[in-house]
Structures are given as structure tokens and as C-alpha cells.
């Protein structure tokens, strides 16, 4: 997994010269500048770049995305013209073909543009980022999915904050999710939400996605363990190993279903039995000899997400769980 250093955005921004409008450029990280421009407007912006204070007396030449500029751009402090979404990686060198000295990446973010080109929307209610946690210890995982034509897009930065304090996170190896660990006491009532922000870019286009939630809203119990049948028609199971203790304080409730043989647990058709219970045993009183028993869990007090289904397949005298 790739470690992410959760950096704080600089609060200051500076005006830059543009043709017919006022735009802003903000530093995102040490070597990344974000140019915020109005959407739907022809944008031509001159952006000031500096190679570094140590190179004031050096013969500094600039390249864009590894290519020499025409006409050549020379000097420790320069201005580059950014038109529309044409940002890029500007590197400075000691001489035309000399040693690399420094670089600045210019990304363009369309201000007041609600279109999402990089990430797919999970659902209208969930947005572009899905988050879940197996319990209340503070560990949570958030995922996203790139659109078909932006599969190359790269995550630049992830920030997770609660009460102005940064939460440490690690980016998944494929860049499609992040694991975070909040220092949270499971017995303490949550007063403040977690703010998760993902900065992702495709070429020079930067998009910013935010998810705001309480941990209790995303806690999803793991699959139930040790589901088995005894005494002919009594099913039993255990709380997930990852669930909090004591069980009396962190209680679960369970949804049970009996469905026709050969159907998935999430079906709404051919359901012979459907009930909610707080017990970890359930007696099935049905006449059929072939069926599937399904059970899943939910936090009793928050009515949060349901766990994945656990099931047993009953085929006369054969039971497979």
C-alpha cells in the first residue's frame, strides 16, 4: 500500500494575470499548483513559476512534460501561459540539457462545475465515495470507481479530518480506495463528523470529491460466523469476531429469511419466511425439504448498513453452510 501524507491546504491564494477575468491559483502540495478557473469560459492565464531561491544566479531552462518549449523559456522566475485545461509538469534544469533542479505541476480545476468526469456515482444518495467500517474502533475503508474513459486517473492527495485533526490514511495499491484509522473511543458518543476529501486528476484536470459522515452511519458488521443447523430445524450462529464487546452494549439484530432452493439471499421472490430477531438461534418451521436459510446482521441501535448474507443450503438430509 502507498502511504499518503495528509497535507493541509494553504489558506492563502494569489491572483494571477488573465485575459478578461480574475482567477486564483492555490498551492495544494509543495510542487503542485491548482488553477481555479470559471467553467464555460475561454481561459488564458499567465502563471508565475520559480525554480528556487538557490538558483538565482544559475542559467535555468524550463521544459514542459519533458519537452523543450518553443520559444525557449529561461530564467529562475518565469511566467507560463495556461490555456483552457492545458496545464502540465514544468521542470527547470541547469542549462538546456542539464541537470534537473525542480518542478511544478499545474492542474486546472473548473470552479462551479458540477460535472464529474473522473469518478462514477455510486448512487444518488451515496455519491461518488462508499465508506464502511467493521466496528467502532475507528478503522474505516472508503472506495471509489473511475469512469471508463478516465481509468488512468491518479489520486494526488487524500485528506481525512475530524474536529480539525487529521486522521492517518493509506491509499490502496490500485488507487481505488483508502484505509484510515481514527483514534476513536467506541464507548464515546460521536459529536462531530468525519470529512474525507479525495483529490484526483486526469492529465491536467483536477476533480475534488468529499464525503461527510459519522462513523456510526457506515458501521457494517462482518459476515456472521459459525452458522450451523442442529436438532433438525434450529439454526445457530455467532456474532462476527470483529464486532465490539460487550454484546449487551453493542447489540445486533438479525434478519432471517427462508427462500426457495437455488435462489440468492437478496431475492424478494419465493420467500417462505422473513423475520427480525435479536437471538442468535432461530427455529425454522416450514414443510419444504429443500430450501435456503439466510441471515444477516445490523447494529440494533443505529439501523445502519446490513452485513453481507450468510446462508445454509438444505437439501433433504444434506445441509451445507
State the secondary-structure class: mainly beta
Widest sheet: strand ordering: 7-6-9-10-4-3-2-5-8
What is the count of helical runs?
1
Helix content: under 10%
- Tell how many strands the DSSP assignment holds: 26
What spatial form do the alpha-carbon principal axes imply? elongated
What gap, in angstroms, lies between the N and C termini? 34 Å
Average pLDDT figure:
87
Strand content: over 45%
Radius of gyration: 27 Å
Largest sheet: 9 strands, mixed
| H/E element order | EEEEEEEEEEEEEEEEEEHEEEEEEEE
Uncertain stretches of 5 or more adjacent residues: 1-18
Walkthrough of the structure:
Helix content is 1%, strand content 48%. It contains one helix and 26 strands. β25 (310-315) and β26 form a beta hairpin. The two termini are 34 Å apart. Residues 1-18 have low confidence and may be disordered.
List the helices and strands and how they pair.
Elements: E1 2-3, E2 14-18, E3 23-29, E4 32-38, E5 44-50, E6 60-64, E7 67-68, E8 77-83, E9 88-94, E10 100-111, E11 130-132, E12 139-143, E13 154-162, E14 165-166, E15 169-171, E16 177-181, E17 194-202, E18 205-213, H1 215-218, E19 225-230, E20 234-238, E21 252-260, E22 271-277, E23 281-283, E24 290-299, E25 310-315, E26 318-320
